[in-house]
Amino acid sequence: FNTVDAIVICSGHVLVVRRGGAPGRGLIALPGGYLEQDERIVDGACRELKEETAIKIPLLELKKAIVDEKVFDHPGRSLRGRTITHAFCFNLGRGVLPQVKGSEDADKAWWMPLDSVYTQESNFFEDHFHIINYFINRV
Fold it and tell me: What is the reported pLDDT for 77?
C-alpha cells in the first residue's frame, strides 16, 4: 500500500486528528491516507490534509509551505500489511493557528502543542509519533 501523511507545524503546534475508523479508532494520527491511482504523491498529501482537517489554506500556499519530506518504509510499520508512506512537512510559520475540524476519516482535528507530543506517545497510531519526532527535530 502507498500512503501519504502531512505533518503541519504552526506556532509551536502540530496538526493532528483522531482516527474515526479501524484500525486505530480513537488514536491520535497525522492527517493522511491512501494515495489514489491517478495522483502525484504531493497532491495526495494535500488532498488528504484538506479532506481530514477542512483546513482553509489554498493548495498553492500549502505546497509552498513544504519544507521537508521523507519516505517511511519499515516493513513492520503498519498492521494493515506492507505500507509505505511518503510524509511531507508543512511549516506555516508563526501566527494565528488556522481553523480546523475533523471530517472524512477523522472524527476530530486539533492543534497539539509540540511539547505535548512527547507525553502522548502511547496514544498515537502506528509510527505517527516517530514521524512527527523526525520532522520536529529538523524544523
Answer: 74
pLDDT in tens, 110-135: 999 999 999 999 999 999 999 999 99
Record the cell numbers describing residue 50, joined without a space.
484538506
Whether the pLDDT of residue 137 is over 90: the answer is no
The b/e string for 68-84 (b: 16+ C-beta within 10 A; e otherwise) is eebebeeeebbeeeebe
Q: For residue 29, what are the contacts with CB-CB under 8 A and spacing of at least 6?
A: 16, 17, 18, 19, 106, 124, 125, 126, 128
C-alpha cell at 54: 477542512
Q: DSSP character for 124?
A: B
Quick count: other Cβ atoms within 10 Å of Cβ 15?
Answer: 24
Distance of alpha carbon 62 from alpha carbon 14, whole angstroms: 15
Q: Which of 6, 12, 18 is nearest to 114 (CA)?
A: 12
Average pLDDT over residues 9-38: 95
Which amino acid, one-letter code, is at 66? I
- What sign does the dihedral 37-43-48-54 (CA atoms) show? negative
User: What is the residue type of 99?
Assistant: Q
